[in-house]
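Sample intake sheet
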Amino acid sequence: MNHYSLLLAQDCVADGQIEVNSPYDLSTIATIDYANSDQVEQALQTAYSVFRDKRKWLTVKQRVDVLEKAADNIHQNLDQLALEAAREGGKPLNDSIVELNRAVDGLKLAIETIRSDMGHVIPMGGDAYSANRAALTQKEPIGVVVAVSAFNHPFNLIVHQVAAAVAAGCPVIVKPAETTPISCMNFVKVLHESGLPKEFCQALVVNDLNVAEQLVTDHRVAFFSFIGSAKVGWMLKSKLTPGARCALEHGGAAPALVYADADLDTTLPLLAKGGFYHAGQVCVSVQRIFADQSIARTLAQQLADFGNNMAIGDPTNADTDIGPLILPREVDRVHQWIQEAIDQGAECLSGGKKISDTCYQTTVLFNPSPVSKVSQLEIFGPVICVYSCNDMDAAIEQANSLNVAFQAAVFTKDIDTAMHAYKQLDASAVMLNDHTAFRIDGMPFAGLRESGLGVGGIPYTIEDMQIEKMLVIKSEFL
């Protein structure tokens, strides 16, 4: 069994350690040290000191060299890193391999971004006040970044936050989810082995919420990157020091509109993948399908059949389609929500039962009440709700009725129908004839309302972690 120490710039002795357990069989797969208040202070002081000493800033070439070597290292060890990610996070091995490949691409994207990074030339000389002047801007790192991450993509989410900070030139301290810290530690080790000074990237976990809050809300933190629940994210934002910027990525209850003319042969596999992928533990997972009444029941029943044919079990097995939920209490919560929805009138077409303490059946609910938890809140489980609609404009109103808004989908062959839905839906991104969980790492990824703040995606995060510093030159020769 592996043990992971705190990855701080200076050696330290931890107060204790926590166990990392497999979400599938609950066995202990590793132990990891946790940081106390003094060690958080040490990490912050180290990061702040290296930022304040501009002689120690990394040049663009130095950052590119680190990221190139890291990408090569991950590519060479991809199978083993994917297996460890699957084992700690529960995402099936084949999907974890995709995640690691995306991480490699993400590092390359960060390299492309900073190689082409540029400031602006500001117009001068057009009036008497700006005569004999020229102005330009250049990019500089914003300062110390603190990144707090989620469990569901344990390697690639860290890349989105940490690699972006490294690319921007910011010292970063990362706190992964306590349930999935191994991938984070592996990535930070790769960065150090690739030549990144330890002062520029430190990693730690805590077992005390007050210590976590100390890390996030310290006055030396210039940028806070958070991926997790809305409750925690908005609370921490309210406690940030004045002047600190932040980006929050929470969740949603993604809607998909399926019109009567949709091609079900291509639509159904996409909806099933988008809803059941990673046991539904994705912030833009297909959750609410609003289907024209002429096809709604057929769609729902065939979707149930798709789910019933998916293999649920050990995420490290290459034949597994769906793994466990992250914790047994999440299985209990999902089951409770489903039973409440059934009691309130939903028809359960498939699933609705626990397979074990850690795994749950793929579940399709037909016409749950609009006031059920499954209709109002993010399920974060392998559950898809299908609503039969005789008025698709009314369906759009229902889709827009929640306090969360993120990505949405529209399935139709008619371009005018598609454009109407695109315009009316409250969403930061609308997928046409694709599922709501589609994402590539270079596209903007932003939750609206309570779903988040700011724009994710590696180039956008790098931009957020920089300032544009202006130089105004006065000369009689201008």
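Comment: The chain has a mean pLDDT of 96. The CA atoms of residues 67 and 107 lie 6 Å apart.
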